[in-house]
Amino acid sequence: MAIPTVSARLARLDWAALEEELWKQGHAVTQPMLTPTECQKLTALYPEPGRFRKTIDMAPRRFGVGDYKYFRYPLPPLVQSLRVSLYRQLAPIANRWMEALRAPERYPATLGEFLERCHLHGQTRPTPLLLHYEAGGYNCLHQDLYGALAFPLQVTAFLSRPSEDYTSGAFLLLEQRPRAQSMCDALMPEQGALVLFATRIRPEPGKTAYRRVQLKHGVGRVRAGTRYTLGIIFHDAK
């Protein structure tokens, strides 16, 4: 029996329920969307220098301990399909967020149209990336902003098996709430699962209007093993 395409798998998700989670807490976790074979094939790209435009060693920059590589165009077919299909589902949610926040930004229906805007602003370099951590590795809390234009949602796909390929190394999401103490979620998604989350801000209901909640994300310290993820960022970089 043929495995459905990744775009078909994504289309079958309960997007209304995922959107509800995004409004409630700024992130949502899917069931596994990638097969173990697809995860292994993506991980196997990491040693191939021709696939990537840039490699970042986190430690000298004090970003954390580990490394990551930005893909070059053209993206691998699976990464391209994920990026196009996820954008199509997330753009309407992003527009509802902007409306709630009374922000002027609105996002077109397709990734191609959005990337045209990025390129007009000088943001032409692809941002999807593979991230790699060994024992002791971690990623400091941060936001993925690469220029004036930033899509308000992004996605991480989990390529390694928690408790089998690595231990600890939770995916961290920190909310900095107005006039309140910050709070953090620590997630350990299954191999192949996706986490959808706010790039920078999300709307939160206030007494009279929605207010902006700032979010950052990172990775807790990996205690043992090797951990790989795929980051899907929709805006390109300068």
Description:
By secondary structure, this protein is of the alpha+beta class. The protein has a single domain (6-232), classed as q2cbj1_9rhob like domain (Jelly Rolls, Sandwich), CATH 2.60.120.620. Helices cover 27% and strands 32% of the residues. It has helices at 6-11, 15-25, 36-44, 58-61, 77-100, 111-120, and strands at 27-29, 52-57, 64-65, 67-71, 129-133, 138-142, 153-158, 166-168, 171-176, 183-187, 194-198, 201-205, 210-219, 222-225, 227-232. It has a seven-stranded antiparallel sheet. Strands 3, 6, 9, 10, 12 and 13 form a six-stranded antiparallel sheet that branches. The protein has a two-stranded antiparallel sheet with strand order 8-14. A hairpin with a 4-residue loop joins strand 12 and strand 13 (210-219). The protein is globular and about 50 Å long. The relative contact order is 0.22.
